[in-house]
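The protein record filed here.
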Amino acid sequence: MSRPDGHAEGGCYFMPAKSDVMIVAWALYHRDTRLRRPLTADGRRKWFAHSLATAWIWALQQATDATKTEDQHRAERLTSLKLELLRVDARPFGMPIAKDRTTLMAEIDRLTAQSSASATRMAA
C-alpha cells in the first residue's frame, strides 16, 4: 500500500521522471495561455509555477495509483458510483433519473459481486 507522500509501505519512493513532469507542465501552460497570456514576465512565471505544481500533483497521483491493488481500485470506483447515485437522486423532479439510476445500480451490483468473490477467494 502506498502513502499520499509518495512513499510505498516498504520504504521505496516512486519518483516520477522530472523530464516527464516538465513536459506535462509545459503542455498545461501552453493550453492555459493559448487564448489569454499574462502581460508581464512575473505573471507568466506564476502561471507556469501553477502548471508545474499541477503536473507534479498528477505525477504523484499516478505513481500512487500504480501501487494500488485491484481491490483498492474497485473500492474507489464503488465510492465514486455511490456518490454519483446520490447526485442522480438529488436531481430536480422534472428531470428523468430512471435510466441513469438503473445503469449506476447495475454497475454497483457488478462491482459488489466482484468484491464478494475476491473476499471469498482470499478467505479460502
